[in-house]
Amino acid sequence: MSDENLNPIIQFKEWFNLAISKEINDPNAMCLSTISSDNKPHSRMVLLKDYNDEGFVFYTNYESNKGNDISINSNVCLNFHWKSLLRQVRIEGAIEKLSEEISDKYYNTRHYLSRIGAWASDQSRTLNNRKELEEKIEFYKEKYPDEKKVPRPPHWGGLLIRHRKIEFWQDMPHRIHRREVYEYQRGVWGRFTLNP
Predict the structure, then answer these.
(1) Residues labelled catalytic
(2) What does the pLDDT look like over 141-164, one tens digit per residue?
(3) Mean pLDDT, the chain cut into blocks of 10 residues (196 residues total)
């Protein structure tokens, strides 16, 4: 087996490109699972913004529930489910913050109101009413009226999941599914098959 065949990102790229062409909505949507301080699992959908041999990237508010969970336990799991392809990809790894430079670069590509929203929203915290949020949005629009000059909030940025295990699951007739796993151990990738 060649080294190329032991690189899970090559297979992920093939499946992801197919999902982009076939999935109706958000082929980059992935379920992120974290563990809270009281050992309770939390899952939510986030959007993949980049991936490479280093890992998988998304952006968020670091003070959100997921940000708090990650600060306590950096072990996370991702799951892509592409219903139209009858395929899933499950990824386990450790998560870390991206550099401020990378976060700034992506933040500045976002729509003006999305950048304002990053300032206005106390993500995951209780909102008394919608008007309260709308007033905060107006406050930050007045504070940053120049659409080209909205600084990135210090509590908002990118996260990288450094994958250590990736399972590629494909639906097959009679529930005899295909499950191929790549796992990184002792500095090298290995590949094996699981029973359905």
Answers:
(1) 175
(2) 999 999 999 999 999 999 999 999
(3) 72 97 95 96 97 98 95 97 96 98 98 97 91 96 97 97 98 95 95 96
**Residue 124: what pLDDT?**
86
Q: 10: part of which helix (H) or strand (E)?
A: helix 8-22
- Local structure of 142: helix, strand or coil: helix
Look-up of token digits 């949005």:
137
**In Å, what is the CA distance from 20 to each residue of 9, 17, 105?**
16, 5, 24
User: How far does CA 20 lie from the centroid of its chain?
Assistant: 16
* Rg, Å, the chain Cα set: 19
What is the crossing angle of helices 130-143 and 112-120, to 10°? 120
Backbone φ/ψ region at 26: left (φ over 0), alpha (ψ -120 to 50), beta: left
Q: Tell me which amino acid residue 32 is.
A: L
Query: Which domains are delineated in the chain?
Result: 4-108+154-193 (2.30.110.10), 111-151 (no CATH)
